[in-house]
Amino acid sequence: MAKLYFHYSTMNAGKSTVLLQASHNYLERGMKTYLLTAAIDGRAGVGRIASRIGISAEADVFNPLENLQEKVLNRLKEGEITCIFVDEAQFLTEDQVWQLARIVDDLTIPVMCYGLRVDFLGKLFPGSAALLAIADEMREVRTICHCGKKATMVIRKSPDGTVQTSGNQVQIGGNETYISLCRRHFREATGDTKIAP
């Protein structure tokens, strides 16, 4: 039975690696996958999903104004799709998440979305909020804080290394910009002091 999945985590947890491995498993069995990634994130090149461990694959891109139902229906004219994989799913709009849900429900094609849950201020991305609300299954891709606890938050550093506590929600970057932390160390880094005993 087809489902809408949301695999979420903080930065540098290996979401793209997991996506690429899952797509490879389908391809290895002779099935056809359709990979999508956000046009806004061109760190690996536009239309490319890449992991930090060196594996990558070509993907179609989406932008916030596109209708993903139409995009998938057009792609189906070229041949069967066994599963759809969406990288950088936090950049989906709420409407696009519903479009993906309709693809699952009406075309019975599974859709696996991979993305960040929260931004550097601890706030949900619109695409992530919609996926958390309507996905059939959610799976956390885990990574750890420098203290060894599970990282659930991320901080953004400015070029001079200071932690940013304001700014635009979207700023493309990697290890040079973002650090994944547990909630306690996120609070410390952003100046949320401890409660006095």
From TrEMBL:
It catalyses: thymidine + ATP = dTMP + ADP + H(+). The keyword Zinc applies. The keyword ATP-binding applies. Its main location: cytoplasm. Keywords: ATP-binding, Cytoplasm, DNA synthesis, Kinase, Metal-binding, Nucleotide-binding, Transferase, Zinc. ATP binds at residues 9-16, 87-90. GO terms for molecular function: thymidine kinase activity. It is an enzyme of class 2 (transferase). It is found in: Cytoplasm. Its EC number is 2.7.1.21. Zn(2+) binds at residues 145, 147, 182, 185. It comes from the Bacteria. PROSITE patterns: TK_CELLULAR_TYPE. The active site is at residue 88. Signal peptide: none annotated. InterPro entries: P-loop_NTPase, Thymidine_kinase, Thymidine_kinase_CS. Belongs to the thymidine kinase family. Homotetramer. This is Thymidine kinase. The lineage of its organism: Bacteria, Pseudomonadati, Pseudomonadota, Alphaproteobacteria, Rhodobacterales.
